[in-house]
Amino acid sequence: MQHLNKTTGFLMKNETFIGSSVIFPYEGDFLCLTAGHNLYGRDFDDNVNLTEWSVIDHIGTSHSVSECIGDANFAREHDIIVLKLNCCSDLQQFHSPKFYTIPKNPSHSFVFRGRYEGNDCAVTQPDLRFINICQSNKHKFFCKIDKNLLMNSDYKSGNDWLSGWSGSGLFLDNPTELMCFGIMIEIPNKGDDGQLKFTSVSAIKNLNINLEIADAGQLDFDQKIRAKAINQIFDQADDEAIRSWELDDVNKPQLDYINEKLQKVYTGDRLVRMKRNTIKKLMVGRSLLYSELRKQDGIYESYLKANNAFGLKDLDILANNREEANEGLRSMTREYEDYLERCLNNFLDPSDIKILASYGISEWISNCSLSFY
After folding, report:
1. Average per-residue pLDDT in the chain?
2. Which CATH number fits domain 4-219: 2.40.10.120, 3.30.450.40, 3.40.50.300, 1.10.3720.10?
3. Which of 220, 152, 138, 239 is nearest to 190 (CA)?
4. In which band, very low, low, confident or very high, does the pLDDT at 293 lie, cut at 50, 70 and 90?
5. Residues in a beta bridge with 68
6. Mode of pairing for the β-strands spanning 110-114 and 62-69
7. Which residues pair with 169 in a beta bridge?
8. How high is the pLDDT of residue 254?
9. Mean pLDDT in residue range 239-268
10. pLDDT at 153 over 60
11. Would the CA dihedral through 218, 223, 228, 234 be positive or negative?
12. Taking the CA of residue 147 as centre, how many other CA atoms within 13 Å lie in the half-sphere pointing to its CB?
């Protein structure tokens, strides 16, 4: 990742290393993003004398701090601040990354770069993945990391030996372009959970800094590819494909379940339509799941977890007649779709979730999972 090292700064107080930061040129200024607690202290109540503070760049040049944008109250809420630096070298030698909002797609891999106390050099840690957004603050989020990377040879973990990582920048693992999403602010539970906590750069919009921050969804090129693939899947699940599926002896057990169960819900022409519709949902959903989503390990695993958890509930529908059976099936479909929406809305768009919900219900109809009594 070219220029990544140029964005790494070491925050110093009276020449003592305090924490890491992201440094970059911006509209003629030299700016620094770091964790708020690096400057204001863990309780955000330290009296700050900016003349004591400086930032050391990748070649060892020290730049004094001229201004802090973000008071203690802002830092306490978001744990991110912006420092203006007096550039003591050529500003053009530094590189400004592109900034993005919270990266919610778990298929993306990230790195973060910073220094920890006891080590003189910056380190780059790879293979971080988005987990979820912090419930208490929409600008904070968690990423997972290999737990072993948070433990040293003396089996000390997390903040016991990694003091100084706060303020490290989170970047997309991309060899061609430098893209920053936030800074690290905490190692929760001393690293025992294999998680790191970050604040999104989008939080600094509250400081009226006109920094261009793009929507991280723009990076989900796989979504655009999948949209095209889904259209092809639908095209392939035509009447001829459905007839072939019905005639294939391999599918006879599933077809028998479909015929048996749907007769309890529909009659006449509608029974014929709904049987073909159920088969189509099976074909489309299975193709989406195994041909597309399986390529995205994080999304695929999240779906399996959600689907398996919902499958633990009682899937029996009690009905005295077809009308009640129909309403019971519709109710279960809505419940399952709402559940998948809550579990997967950070990763998938509504059309994907609807396809997966329809597939899940059709799959349960075509085996012994869902029954009508």
Report:
1. 89
2. 2.40.10.120
3. 152
4. confident
5. 83
6. unpaired
7. 113, 183
8. 94
9. 93
10. no
11. negative
12. 8
Q: Among candidates 120, 173, 175, 98, which has minimal Cα distance to 143? A: 173
Q: Tell me the sheet residues that pair with 111.
A: 171
Nearest to 25 by CA among 166, 167, 178: 178
The full set of domain ranges for the chain reads 4-219, 221-372
Cα separations (Å) of 188 from 150, 154, 295, 339? 11, 20, 30, 28
The rounded distance, in Å, linking the Cα atoms of 75 and 72 is: 5
Tell me: the pLDDT tens digits for 47-102? Answer: 999 999 999 999 999 999 999 999 999 999 999 999 999 999 899 899 999 999 99
Which residue type is seen at 273? Answer: R
**Residue 35 CA: distances (Å) to CA of 58, 183, 186, 271, 360:** 19, 7, 9, 62, 44
Q: What is the mean pLDDT of residues 32-52?
A: 95
Spatial CB neighbours of 112, under 8 Å, sequence gap ≥ 6: 124, 125, 128, 168, 169, 170, 171, 184, 196
pLDDT at 200 over 70: yes
Axis-axis angle for helices 252-262, 268-287 (nearest 10)? 140
Is the dihedral angle over the CA atoms 253, 257, 258, 260 positive or is it negative?
positive
Token digits for 98?
A: 């592109």
Q: Which residue in the block uniquely carries the two structure tokens 């290999």?
A: 146
